[in-house]
From TrEMBL, chain A:
Taxonomic lineage from the root: Eukaryota, Viridiplantae, Streptophyta, Embryophyta, Tracheophyta
Keywords, alphabetical: Repeat
PANTHER family (UniProt xref): ANKYRIN REPEAT-CONTAINING PROTEIN (PTHR22870:SF466), REGULATOR OF CHROMOSOME CONDENSATION (PTHR22870)
Highest taxon, organism lineage: Eukaryota
This protein's record includes keyword Kinase: no
One Pfam family per UniProt: WD40_RLD
GO CC terms, sorted: cytoplasm
Residue ranges annotated for the RCC1-like domain, each copy included: 24-400
Identification of the protein by name: RCC1-like domain-containing protein
InterPro entries (alphabetical): RCC1-like_dom (IPR058923), RCC1/BLIP-II (IPR009091), Reg_chr_condens (IPR000408), Ub_ligase/GEF_domain (IPR051210)
PROSITE patterns, per the entry: RCC1_2, RCC1_3
RCC repeats: from-to residues: 21-74, 75-126, 127-178, 179-233, 234-277, 349-404
From TrEMBL, chain B:
Keyword Oxidoreductase: no
Highest taxon of the lineage: Eukaryota
Gene3D superfamilies found in the cross-reference section: DPH Zinc finger
Any Pfam family: Zn_ribbon_CSL
Similarity comment text for this entry: Belongs to the DPH3 family.
Protein name as it appears in the record: Diphthamide biosynthesis protein 3
Pathway entry: Protein modification; peptidyl-diphthamide biosynthesis
GO terms, biological process: protein histidyl modification to diphthamide
Annotated catalysed reactions: [3Fe-4S](1+)-[protein] + Fe(2+)-[Dph3] = [3Fe-4S](0)-[protein] + Fe(3+)-[Dph3]; 2 [3Fe-4S](0)-[protein] + 2 Fe(2+)-[Dph3] + NADH = 2 [4Fe-4S](1+)-[protein] + 2 [Dph3] + NAD(+) + H(+)
Keywords from the UniProt entry: Iron, Metal-binding
Amino acid sequence: MAAAALEERRWREPEDEAAADWAWSWGAGTDGQLGNGGFDDHHLPQPLLLPTRCRGRVSFVAGGGAHAIALTSDGEVFTWGRGTHGQLGHGNLDNIPHPKLVKFLENHTITCVSAGWNHSGFATDSGQLFMCGDGSFGQLGTGDNLSRNFPFEVAYFNGRYIEKLAFGMRHSLVLLKDNSVYGFGSARRGQVGKCVSRNQKTDNVPKLIDGFPNCKIVNIYANGDHSAAVDESGHLYIWGRPLIGEDDDDQPRRILPSLSVSQVALGWHHALVLSAGELYTLGVYRHQKCDLPGSGNVLVQQSNTRATSSSHDRSSSLSMLETVPFIDGEHVVQIASGTEHSALVTDKGSVFTWGWGEHGQLGLGDTSDHVAPQRVDIGDNGQRMSGSLAVYCGSGFTVAVKLP
Amino acid sequence: MSAYDEVEIEDMEWNAELKAYTYPCPCGDLFQITLDDLRLGEEIARCPSCSLFLTVVYNAEDFADAKEPTTQKPSPSPVAVA
Ligand SMILES: [Zn+2]
């Protein structure tokens, strides 16, 4: 349609042509979360319209329910997608289909970001945390349940240096450089740790999460109602809604004691765990409770999926731990997870995706589901970009960015 | 097909614009169930954007002649620059 084409052109900025070969997105797009100038789903990688000056400088992309945040190596942040709760931080509630610099934070150097379902967080190099978006579950940590459409400083963390942020659907986790982990927001499933009262549903004030015995936490993770942390020895702790079984847990528990975990990616019902070069899935993709199309069943047979032996491990959860089948000669270097799909990058610079594909979030040109990782052609004319890509997921979409 | 998930009504949010209780759908949109549906004893919340649906757990008697909730979520408010 001519009008749509015009609309698309209007959003483009003059310097955007060069974005074609270094940043891409695909999947659900109706809120503008693909950042490609439009409001449509795309089943194949599209150019993500980050300004050319960001080329090779994008250090992280956080994907939320239908919005995303890109962080550059010199501390600038861009947001795009759904803005209905102020989560883009531009002072309004507009959906924006292209990355836009968060002006409010222009005079700050941002070091880490995270995106929840409808909320966003930005930590600075000077020990400040700014939050915006939906605050109705207390997930902004501001001591109230108000939403904010400009980044709002959480006074509690002023002067306390933040190492990592990890936001789930309705909750937020903060890892400080002093090794403490804080949580706030929805407490319904134990995802922000123990509450004073058992019936407490939300906690809008940051609260220390206890239960990491004499260890240095190096990373935290959140998605859906799940929370996780990894310490410097590769020990994995999880709490919140269970990935396996029925019981919520408000206490971090160490799981998979036989693994030395280097990376984790959480979905809404599954987790990816990378350990000694092997990739495992914990839990199940819920969409697969639906009838899989025929092609999916064929893949199950081809994929040589095997359940990991539980004989060497005391954890009963291991019976639900599966090795992700993979291609000989390529090694997994980075993993990411949406709500119901997963992505990885290999040392050869290839991107693979699998899981739920209804919105094209696998980037394979159709809407099929896949149980085994499939190679994505990101349209770089078949050029191998050895080890130089990073992949990130929002709920129903995926982003890939070329590294320097 | 089976339900994507099971959610208690108290974990859903009333959306005055959609006139429905909503819950996040993994596709990025919202599962929705209207007050009329609840009055009729319907247990399925559907997402307008995808094939997934939720089972809603609630007490039918609570909704037999329920009125639209008046408590609205606080809207995003502009905040002065510190
Ligand atoms: Zn949906």
